[in-house]
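Objective 1b. Sequence-to-structure analysis of Protein MgtC.
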Amino acid sequence: MFESLIHTALSLGAAFLLGGLIGFERQWRQRLAGLRTNTLVAIGAATFVVFAGLFPGEGSPTRVAAQIVSGIGFLGAGIIFKEGLNVRGLNTAATLWCSAAIGAMCGAGFYPHAVVAAGFVIAVNLLLRPLVQMIERQPLSSTELESRYDISIVCHGEVEAHIRALLLRDLGSSLHIQALESVNIEDSNRVEVEASVRADDRQDRLLEQIVGRLSLEPLVTSAKWRFVTGEQNVG
């Protein structure tokens, strides 16, 4: 009994420390799941594995670990959300998943393995960030000609959502949307839907087709586009 308590204390203590280290990095960057969340996930996973070990022959810790992998999904789903055209929280959800795995290792008593795994998780979040930012700043090729366009659609307020949906549908297949917003026009029931898009080369004919179709929609009073710039990227 005493040895079992010692093992439990060591397992949960290791999960507390390693989960806390991962959570500290997340908290420092002000993510949705920070210090407490990652620590609790690691401790919870370790507790489930320790609990399975208290009943020799009744259940394998590996089976419990498999259930942890499934169960952690509800936490990950809760912090992944869509903000405009961007999806946020994927990295935080993946970090929670890793915290659960590290906690399971601690619960099974594989402390050195858990330390190594925690080190890799922290390294990914800290060291790969500058590399990702550097890659995102690079053009796709050294001779890529980037074209930018502004689109303006004026419509009645009741069809604003419909016009935005059509605009997203038509633009999303061939163009890169940079910004999309709606501005109420004072002293009227009209709204101006403005979009800024980027193309890898000149797409004037495509823009004319898209805006031309939107101009035929009911309650659309104005539809126009303009070419902003075409810049030669140097890699």
